[in-house]
Amino acid sequence: MPQTIVFDEPGAKVRLDSISTDPPPKMTKAKAKERFESLNEELFELQDLLWGAKTHSVLLVLQGRDAAGKDGTVKHVVGGLNPRGVQVTSFGVPTTEERQHDFLWRVHRVAPRQGEFSIFNRSHYEDVLVVRVHELVKKSVWKTRYDSINAFESLLAEHGCIILKYFLHISKDEQEKRLLEREKDPVAAWKINVEDWKERDEWGDFTEAYEDAISRCSLPHAPWIVVPADAKWYRNLVVAESLAETLRPYRKEWLKTLDQVGKERRAELTAWHAGREGDSGEKAQRRRKRRSPARRKRVAEEPERAATDGSGA
Ligand code: ATP
After folding, report:
1. 121 shares a domain with 67
2. Pocket probe mutation, ligand 1, options 99, 122, 128, max atoms within 8 Å of Cβ
3. CA angle, residues 142, 148, 154, in degrees to nearest 5
4. Average pLDDT for consecutive 10-residue bins of the chain (313 residues)?
5. Ligand 1: residues within 6 Å at CB?
6. Taking the C-alpha atoms of 205, 211, 215 and 218 in order, what is their torsion angle to the nearest 10 degrees?
7. Range of the domain at 38
């Protein structure tokens, strides 16, 4: 079982440098893969219950530096879910329309509906990360956003949204390795741009911004999980394990809801079938009554006539 580093109370001291980006020494890729497969099956089943019960929704926020593995997490962890109930949204530089609204507008529109998952590849946190580091708005503006984010996430939670926020934690060396690999790979080079390298020079500023965001916006109903992400297989395992751990306690409640709804549906169906039989009985009676004595006689004689004149052959 992986050890997850969870922040679920505001105000905790967050020191990313003191959190390892590597898997624990005893964890092996083979063990992790085996566990991951079984978690994927469990998550698929839990998602089905969530979908049917429609009492909750799930929001996964994926944040991390360039090449930290946000896309890979979507592919591997979310890829195991039934796409019917999953919406993935990537948040890039805001469009003109988005900028003309408050910073949460574009995010709230794609918050998950009950029964569904929403995955955010980057999120409203960019408005206290890149916006802060690149000084895209005044400090007095981004400073107020932590409270707005907490209020927003509390609102979602009140509506049954289960929120998990992941910081994919990679080392500077691992990032360099991945960026260079991408640059050399003709199929992956499109993913990289000059900004990715420039932001490495701001590593410390981003670290501070992440630490503040995690510290100020960790709540019991919207925790941050710091995921050691230098090894992709361990990153996938931590995300899947923490997601399953969070959803598992709801299983009973969802099953109970499904059972209750099932009972109501069955009662409705029983009443409907009984009504239908009653209806058809009455209709048949009415039809029989409408037949004149002469017609009844004719119908009764029909087989006899057919037998004698050969018209029934
Ligand atoms: P990624 O690195 O997430 O795979 P990308 O580098 O391919 O993405 P896009 O998806 O086009 O690029 O956009 C992501 C960029 O948008 C990031 O550089 C991010 O900092 C920026 N961005 C996201 N939200 C905001 C925001 N609210 N304000 C300014 N820039 C933002």
Report:
1. yes
2. 122
3. 150
4. 88 96 95 96 98 98 97 94 97 98 98 98 98 98 98 98 98 96 90 89 97 98 98 98 98 98 95 85 63 60 51 40
5. 66, 70-71, 90-94, 122, 126-127, 130-131, 136, 191, 195
6. 110
7. 5-256
